[in-house]
Amino acid sequence: MPGARRARCHRAPHGALGLLCLALLLALPARAQQGGARVLHCTLEGTVDAGSVAYLTGCVRAAEARQDVLLVRLDTPGGQLEATREVTRSFLGAKVPVLVWVGPSGARAGSAGLFLVLASNVAGMAPGTNIGAAHPVAGPGGADPEQVAGEQLARKVVNDTVAFAEAVARQRGRNAAWAASAVRESASIPAERAVSLGVVELQSPSEEAFLRAVSGRTVQTADAPWRLDTAGAQLDVLSPSFRQRLVHWLANPSIVYLLFVVGALGIAIELASPGVGVAGALGGVSLLLALVALSVLPIQAGAVVLLLIGVGLILAELAVPSGLLGLGGVVLLVFGGLLLVDRVDPAWFVEPSFRIPLRLVLPVAVALGGMATYVAVRAAQARRRPMVAGDVGLVGEHGRALSAITAKGGEAFVHGERWSAVAPRPVPPGAPVVVRRVEGLTLFIEETAT
Predict the structure, then answer these.
(1) CATH number of 35-241, picked from 3.30.1490.100, 3.90.226.10, 3.30.750.24, 3.40.50.300
(2) Model pTM above 0.70
């Protein structure tokens, strides 16, 4: 660090080492002017889950290995409580400064995201962002957890989370009283209010402006004090690995809903009408991914049962067209999707927005029901049509003569194909004809009026 180098040079003896230190001190301003300072940049968008834990803790380790400042851009509705604790411990124990910026405008540090902000060395928020709403669990419709999960369990979870928030806030010198209210009362405040209450240090419209504003501050890391030199710093972006992206992507209730419905439908179609296996393979992969996600998300088993029954009713509509089966399947898919996320799971710490929105559930359910109804109607129409397959289907078909046709033979174009044809009376080329009977591959035709 530049500050550490200057301190060592002030204590160095005269002579060759003193000249070396003088040269080093003269070189430091030039490096800053050339943008030599580097900041490792990581981004968390979405839930705090197993994938984002691996990513963010990896960011801390990478920054420590490079001895770079770490900047995390944050936009989260919350996530797993244990995952949040792990990332918070990583931030608090970092040997390099950890900066958190909540942005861009419209972003939020909701529920579990509050702790990541509190655990940072310096935090900033963009205008139009908010922080808080950190009540641990909430029942359907925003009901208090004491009404849903039991008074004793709710009190235990809330008290433990309050103590966690207060401890982190005090360690970083932030407003512990407001942090406690964010947990007990789901308090949520905008960026300017967060600055005035001492929850974050700055309101900055961009990451670059945030880095300029914090430059020159001295923060305490787990190792030693560190003077920030971030004005005009070069941002080195560290992206998550494919596995981390996949796990984080799957921790999305909307994605899980789509994968589950597609998977169940694909396997059911394959069992109902075995073919080349495309539907079965697609359904199997989708269902496998959905099951992986269901194992790490707060999911209600009853909602999963509703989804399975809904898919079954829609498939039954294909076999027994009635309209009622398809309608029942659509209703169950809607209710199953809306109830899929368990809002009283104490292991998760999310805003009410962490759910499957009606604007996704309704179109998916209606589309599946509509497709089933369409297929059922078309099948019913096909069953009512007379049998036209084979040779019998050619009798009465109209066509035209491709050559002169006599009792000895000729060619005719009927039903989109070329046929050998005979006629009791000669038929000139191009004349319209009608099939009277079929024997083997020969058509017996007559000329008709146009």
Answers:
(1) 3.90.226.10
(2) no
